[in-house]
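Marked as duplicate of an earlier ticket. Keeping the data here for the record.
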Amino acid sequence: MIIVIAARELRSLFLSPLAWTLLAVIQGLLAWMFLLLVDDFRALQGRLASLDNAPGVTDLVAAPLFQVAAWVLLLLVPLLTMRLFSEERRTRTLDLLLSAPVALSEIVLGKYLGVLAFLLLTIAVIALMPLALALGATLDVGKLLGGLLGLSLLTAAASAAGVYLSTLTTQPAMAAIATMGLLLALWMVDAASTVPGTTGDLFGYVSLRRHYDAFLLGLFDSADLAYYLLFSAAFLGLAIRRLDDLRLRD
């Protein structure tokens, strides 16, 4: 049943003009940024040739592109997840879904995986840009795969937060604003991690950016992987609990 719900959600996204418009805008923006980064790299090639252990095309083009892509996806996720449950609650179709012989976990995971599949397809298209450089340059495959893994995990975590916040309101716009505010706060809380002491360490650990930057450097740490997996599982669990409360209340 999870696959059925996910396929239905994915199909509805591809039938939505909003999803296609957002996808076109994002790809156009990132393609423009990619061309600027390539042009800057070409201009620096003469200077880099005289340096020992000079950064390559992966460091100067792919990594900055993925950094910008992270910001863009953090803005995109709320717009795609805002209607998952809030729209269903507003139109009263959620009552029918909750009364169906389907587990709440299947409903949440199905909708979550449907949106995540759409976002992973977006990331796959983004990945084609730096991969195209392999035709004329040497890529650091480890750093490239690390960046893609980090971007995918970041997107999965952000989507889970969006799913939960969508269950809290009947207004999709409010769900989008709440999700965007939460994600930006967790992204920028890294600035507070410079404070010495336990508080600074805590801010550093909950920072989405801190764990993502490690992947961009090609560093794979099980702690970073566990952070994103636990983050996603926690918000999906909260979404299931919220639906359970709504079902009992009705």
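See parent ticket for discussion. The two ends are 23 Å apart (CA to CA).
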